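re the bet — no i am not wrong, look at it urself. input seq straight from the record:
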Amino acid sequence: MSGKNIRLARLFGNDGRALIVALDHGRRHGPIPGIKNLGKTLKEIVKAEVDGIMMTPAMISRYWDIVKDIFLIARIDGTGTVKSLDETDDRLIASVLFAVKKGADAVSVMVYPGSINEQFLWEKLSIVVEEAENIGIPVLAEVVPKPPVFENKFDPYAIAYGSRIAAEIGADIIKTLYTENFGEIVESTPVPIVILGGEKTSSPTDILEIVEKAVKEGAAGAAIGRNIFQHENPLGMARALMAIIHEGLKASEAAESFL
């Protein structure tokens, strides 16, 4: 078994599923609610014994004493911020080796199919995949369709298109949106898919229901950020999601038990 496969087995465990808590938003949004005091949030999240946490390499290093027992995914791109002229012009901010030296078990990059930068983003992914393969590190590709080609980011074709190309280039995990015909997208993507949470939902149970449906249709779990760290009870939300993903609880049961 290769080093990469050993690391993937650590993340997905015996049931092949994982909850990743995305806490890399600071590199794109700055100090938004829920992560203004990242250390405080992390201390709550780790109590839920989540499967993975995603942060930038610098934050992994800074908060190593809190997160050292969790599988750590380093976001290694981030030049496209919410205030930049083009958010899809998202270039590397670190190498795979730099991230590993900071403590990462895997790395992650963004890809925006349909954007004016699509071809450069696929090239970025291919460069990261090759470097990561040489040192046994898994790569997660976050696939989010964008205009001008895809006006609707939930377009099933757009998500299937982007997920398959990311897998063809060598991504080991795909993080993308849940949409209709999701089972068909899973079937056409030969690597695990975890669904992203996106903006905080209007009702706390909404994200629980989405994750429940996604797992039933073949998702390997979820990578959730704002719907955990901006919830009034981040620990409870993380535990609820863990119960849905690993224990098969219904969304209503998880909400009643943990929220």
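see?? Residues 3-258 form a domain with the TIM Barrel fold (CATH 3.20.20.70). told u. also The mean pLDDT is 97. so pay up
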